[in-house]
Design brief:
Helices cover 27% and strands 20% of the residues. The protein has helices at residues 53-60, 100-103, 110-123, 133-139, 156-169, 186-202, 214-220, 238-243, 248-255, and strands at 10-19, 27-37, 42-46, 68-73, 76-77, 93-96, 174-178, 206-211, 223-228, 231-237. It has one domain: P-loop containing nucleotide triphosphate hydrolases (Rossmann fold), CATH 3.40.50. The structure holds adenosine-5'-triphosphate (ATP) and magnesium ion. This is ABC transporter ATP-binding protein.
Length: 317
């Protein structure tokens, strides 16, 4: 099989995830997302708080059920499973959670938790790579003696590094990082993100790297997908998207990146917050905040074109 005909490592097709509460409209956190990650590829997923990034990440790892659509890992459907009965093959998919406290066991030493990862890899026949937790800790910039300590003895940023070490120890073929660097100092963020990229790619894995910070993502991602209120609004090669964003939302996100002179922290052209996903705007979800909205944007939902943009300003050729 050629690399083109081989199924992607991760395939997401028309994924819909809704949260239901009795007596209230469902929250459509992911509203029809299609996405691919190939082996050896880093895909960055960006978007404002509440747009559905974590929900998408959890669904990809089989932790949140999909309402519609299909998720495949190496061509095999990923089904949500009881955590206790998680398919051993799915240890090849590792996630670093937004809140590393939630994913580390407070009662077990850090080293023992990293050993779990090493054993999971060995169970799949993956035995090359470091064999001790100390080696993984030093890879993520922590002293080897930290293996003997408990999670509560660390800062939030250190816990994120431990969570990354543990995920890498399982020799994942797909690593999903949900804001994996958010608790780190600004000065360490790019360093650790770059480290994640190189450690993941070193073993030929794919990396789905989720962040609201486009300025970090553009340095480590091969491709970027921009999400707004449960939908992908633009996707493309990282450099292209950074240099010539087409969707007004991507343009606004870029304009909101703090400039060295301190200007532009909040984009003047992007007023308001992400709307409530249980009552999304009609048509293009972005139209109430869009500086270029015209008649029709409030009625018809733009489709993501083969060129990678979902906007009525850029109709399919
Ligand atoms: N367990 C849940 N029950 C009900 N609604 C939820 C649940 N988790 C998330 N939501 C809602 O789904 C939407 C998407 O949430 P999600 O956490 O996926 O966003 P996000 O992009 O990861 O945001 P952030 O950048 O703040 O982490 C939000 O409106 C959120 O309030
Ligand atoms: Mg999140």
């Amino acid at each position: 099989m050629t690399s083109q005909s081989r199924p992607p490592l991760l395939g997401v097709d028309g994924l819909v995830v809704q949260y239901r509460r009795p007596g209230a409209a469902p929250t459509r956190a992911v509203g029809g997302v299609s996405l691919e990650v190939r082996s050896g590829e880093v895909v960055g997923l960006v978007g404002e708080s509440g747009c559905g990034k974590s929900t998408l990440a959890r669904a990809v790892c089989g932790l949140t059920p999909a309402e519609e659509g299909r998720i495949t890992f190496d061509g095999t459907p990923v089904r949500p499973l009881n955590v206790r009965r998680r398919d051993p093959a799915l240890t090849a998919v590792q996630m670093v959670f937004q809140d590393p406290y939630g994913s580390l066991n407070p009662r077990r030493r850090v080293g023992a938790q990293i050993v779990d990862g090493i054993r999971a890899a060995a169970g799949r026949g993956e035995t090359d790579g470091p064999r001790t937790p100390e080696e993984y800790l030093s890879r993520v910039g922590l002293p080897e003696s930290d293996a003997q300590r408990y999670p509560h003895e660390f800062s939030g940023g250190q816990r994120q590094r431990i969570a990354i070490a543990r995920a890498l120890a399982a020799r994942p073929r797909l690593l999903v990082g949900d804001e994996p660097i958010s608790a780190l100092d600004a000065s360490a963020q790019l360093h650790v993100a770059t480290l994640m990229r190189s450690l993941a790619l070193e073993s030929g894995a794919g990396l789905l790297f989720i962040s609201h910070d486009l300025s970090v993502v553009r340095h480590i991602a091969d491709r970027i997908a921009v999400m707004y209120l449960g939908r992908i609004v633009e996707t493309g090669p990282a450099a292209e998207l950074w240099d010539s964003p087409r969707h007004p939302y991507t343009q606004a996100l870029l304009a909101s990146i703090p400039q060295p002179d301190g200007a532009g922290v909040l984009p003047a052209e992007l007023p308001g917050d992400v709307p409530d996903p249980s009552a999304p705007p009609s048509g293009c979800h972005f139209h109430p905040r869009c500086p270029h909205a015209f008649d029709g944007c409030d009625r018809e939902e733009p489709r993501l074109t083969s060129g990678g943009v979902a906007c009525h300003l850029h109709p399919a050729a």
